[in-house]
Here is the input.
Amino acid sequence: MNKLLQSDLSEFESLLEKVKSQGLDYINTIDDRPTSSHQKIPETLGLDKQGLGGRKTLQLFNERFEPLIVSSSGPRFWGYVIGGSTPASIMGDWLASIYDQNPQAIKGTGDISANIELETIQLILDLFDLPKSYVGGFVTGATMSNFTCLAVARQWIGKTAGKDFAKEGITEKIPVLTATPHSSAIKSLALLGMGSNNIVKIKTIEGHKEAISIDDLEAQIKKLNGRPFILISSAGTVNTVDFDDFKAIKKLKETYNFWWHTDAAFGGFAACSNTHKHFLEDWDYSDSITLDCHKWLNVPYESAVFLVKEEHRLLQTESFQNSNAPYLGDPLENFNYLNFLPENSRRLKALPAWFSLRAYGKEGYTSIVENSIGLAQYFGKKIEESHDFKLLAPVRLNNIVFNLKRKPNQNVLDAFLNQLNGSGKVFMTPTFYHDEKAIRASFVNWRTTEKDVDLVCEEMQRIINAI
Ligand SMILES: Cc1ncc(COP(=O)(O)O)c(C=O)c1O
Here is the structure.
């Protein structure tokens, strides 16, 4: 064995202790650590011939890169849609690295850790009150979940014309109807060869601005003259968390032949809230659903789930099995994740989610989700009452989109957001809302409190007064 590996092995316990204590320092100061870094980015270093061993490597990391680490899992990182990591999810994440399994098979000899993933999917279905008729698995994020679901949708479209697109490639343009898809769904269409320009954009409901107009949807469906198509619906648009009308879509599905995919990356968590779950009524008729775990489930990156109705299992294996795979029969009888998702090898991504779901249960997640919703309403009210800021859409769930009252405001808005994010007290994301620049704040982190909102509002006021 290499000498440095040998000495790290003999010092393993003390190395892990060092990392644990450094991790705890980060966690214990996460509220105060800045949300942005002004540190100089170090120059790239080449590979050492000999290597440094674990202890000196940690030192080098601390000198060069640790100062760049921001409090992105802390209570005031409101940009994108970013969760933190619950204590139990970190326990599961550490063990996922230590055990280093590659979950594929569920029986036989060798690694059968995929059983943990299958159980975690059942916990997810329980959390969201979804039927057991979905087969699910873990991928890196909602982008890959959208990709996975749309790959099966693509195969379904092929089959309606007697073709096997996975084997033959796409031979015709596939109609994809959608109103306000997340950019990652469009990226998935590009990756799948369906073309990001090929979507049929459906109008949105007057007044709602982001939810699909069912009237226009039906009008566009009629224009297809019975051709099967894919519908991408939104359970929570990223800006204003608008929900498509799933009850109406379910009705359309009784008349028209289409694959219904729902991107519920974070909006699906409305299912955990007694006051907001009505947004999701009938979403369980979707053929496929995207859910992100590194958002509101508050587990570490990279974690998301795809759910595809079990009746489509053959289409799913046709899409994902390796080309040299033997005939599989019923893919559920010989279940192997290898044949159900894009990657062959993966880490045990389900373990952090399994730990967190077991540790906090339905009540724990209801309290996280309702806390975030309450904070979004609190922040929204403060924006509404302010002389300087204006809400651009009602607070439906957990995201706020706002702008400045003063006009013209576009350059001032940039300056304001730069200063706000530069303060390190909070991080928010620039966005566009109906062709206007705007700012988005998203509440999903389990640690955030009203005190954080108050602190941010004071900082916002200080900065806008000075501009
Ligand atoms: C609705 C929706 N879908 C998909 C995504 C992409 O998620 P990820 O970054 O996990 O790939 C996001 C990210 O914010 C989202 O809000």
About this structure: The two ends are 62 Å apart (CA to CA). The chain has 14 helices and eleven strands. The longest strand covers residues 436-442.
